[in-house]
Amino acid sequence: DSGVTQTPKHLITATGQRVTLRCSPRSGDLSVYWYQQSLDQGLQFLIQYYNGEERAKGNILERFSAQQFPDLHSELNLSSLELGDSALYFCASSGASGGHNEQFFGPGTRLTVL
Amino acid sequence: KNQVEQSPQSLIILEGKNCTLQCNYTVSPFSNLRWYKQDTGRGPVSLTIMTFSENTKSNGRYTATLDADTKQSSLHITASQLSDSASYICVVSPTNDYKLSFGAGTTVTVRA
Bridge partners of B98? Predict the structure, then answer.
């Protein structure tokens, strides 16, 4: 158990809908990272937050947005969902903002768009 | 072009045998290189982490090596077990960037 929690574990929705994925980092970790992993694909970095502020952005679509709250939990919002958005979404946390710090991954949320 | 290339894409080995996975990277300069193990449908779990000055790091039956001159790393699995069946991901952390560079992973299947 990495100490990172993600909810829900599974999510099934329809095209055009909007969903929110939630992540709670390890106790004391200030950085939260979001990744997308499509079937048989590698991890794609989406976005990073550090202590409530956006720190780095990867290949995140404009239909996707994220935020980190004062209690350090984070939410990833996906809107106008398309079939291709079906994937595993992972959240990771680390103690500091730099990429050289070890990231601990949550169990993931499996999103299925029908 | 991906800055981290892993080979082979997949491999099948018999239980008890050894295998070696390769990672070639172009990220430079870098702070550290990590190997993660990801079971199907689960989050990646760190196996080893090496700074640019380290040559080898072990974690049980897993041994990672790093050659910063040739920009190559390998992960050696000794006496494989069925539980080693997973995807192994090489991750390089650039010195001057927050974003990690991920390899596509090598899928290892261990058969009895």
Answer: none
CA distance linking residue B76 with residue B112, whole number of Å: 19
Rg (CA), chain A: 13
Task: Determine whether the interchain pair A98/B99 forms a contact, defined as Cβ–Cβ distance below 8 Å.
Answer: no
Half-sphere exposure of A82 (CA within 13 A, CB side): 6
Hey, how many other C-beta atoms are within 10 angstroms of the C-beta on B68?
A: 18
Residues of A in contact with B49 (CB under 8 A): 102
Closest CA to A29 of A45, A56, A7, A48: A48
Q: Using the beta-carbon criterion (under 8 Å), do B32 and A2 form an inter-chain contact?
A: no
Residue with tokens 């596509």: B104
3-state DSSP assignment of residue B84: helix
Nearest residue, CB atoms, A99 vs list B42, B44, B93: B93
Residue pLDDT tens, chain A, 114 long: 889 999 999 999 999 999 999 999 999 899 999 999 988 778 899 999 999 999 889 889 999 999 999 999 999 999 999 999 999 999 999 886 555 578 899 999 999 999
φ/ψ of B50, rounded to 5, equals -125, 135
